[in-house]
Design brief:
Protein name: Tryptophan-associated transmembrane protein
Structural class: mainly alpha
Strand order of the largest sheet: 1-2
Number of helices: 6
Number of strands: 2
Low-confidence stretches: none
Shape: rod-shaped
Keywords: Membrane, Transmembrane, Transmembrane helix
Mean pLDDT: 77
Distance between the termini: 114 Å
Strand content: under 5%
Helix content: 40-55%
Order of helices and strands: HEEHHHHH
Organism: Streptomyces sp. 900116325
Largest sheet: 2 strands, antiparallel
């Protein structure tokens, strides 16, 4: 958060310097807005174009790209704005050097002046602001935060409801609300002999008792 604020301040200062630079003297007392955009590709001429046909137009576009990048917290857009400004500034210096034979810095105002410094410095500040910004978090971080905020899924119907310390089945495994009956403990093999007929002779059926009256 702090890096975004600091980077935004630096990038805003760079964008302001870039927009202001064409209204300062660039070379030999000539304002930057008096150079046509076409002069950067065809050679420096003495024509004085309007603001929308001058070098101020690409600088204004670069400042707008930087502002969009700051709103979206996009380091790429802010860096692209700085590259645009530095690219047009270097291209102007190449064309001006070709037209004048050389580039000089003189105290009497016959060489490079403050407008070029504003443009070059603004482009550098835009690149520095893009480096200072932390930008948006990546998709991986968003997924990590989403997974962190998502509640834990409840165990499925097929999974046993167990408690980790004891691994004992929980309430969802029991099918009856009543406690299960205890099973008799195992006492080993039966040591008591079964009851057997120990009479020496088997008891025989002697028929009906003659003393008992017959039943109807």
């Amino acid at each position: 958060m702090i890096r975004n604020i600091l980077g935004s301040i630096v990038a805003l200062a760079g964008a302001a310097a870039v927009v202001l630079s064409p209204f300062r003297d660039w070379y030999g007392g000539r304002l930057g807005r008096h150079y046509r955009v076409a002069d950067l590709f065809n050679g420096i001429s003495g024509a004085r174009p309007g603001p929308l046909a001058s070098i101020w137009l690409p600088f204004l576009f670069a400042a707008a790209v930087a502002l969009v990048g700051l709103v979206l917290r996009s380091r790429l857009l802010v860096a692209c704005a700085g590259v645009i400004v530095l690219g047009f500034t270097v291209l102007w210096m190449v064309r001006q050097g070709q037209a004048g034979g050389s580039l000089t810095v003189a105290s009497d105002g016959s060489g490079l002046q403050l407008g070029v410094a504003y443009a070059a410095g603004g482009g550098v500040l835009l690149l520095l602001g893009a480096l200072l910004m932390s930008g948006r978090h990546g998709s991986g971080s968003r997924l990590g935060r989403r997974a962190h905020n998502q509640p834990y899924a409840a165990p499925g119907a097929d999974d046993p409801d167990t408690w980790p310390p004891t691994q004992e089945p929980g309430p969802s495994v029991q099918t009856s609300p009543w406690p299960e009956p205890e099973v008799d403990p195992y006492t080993g093999p039966d040591t008591h002999p079964r009851h057997e007929d120990t009479a020496p002779y088997p008891v025989q059926d002697e028929g009906p008792d003659p003393r008992r009256p017959p039943q109807a």
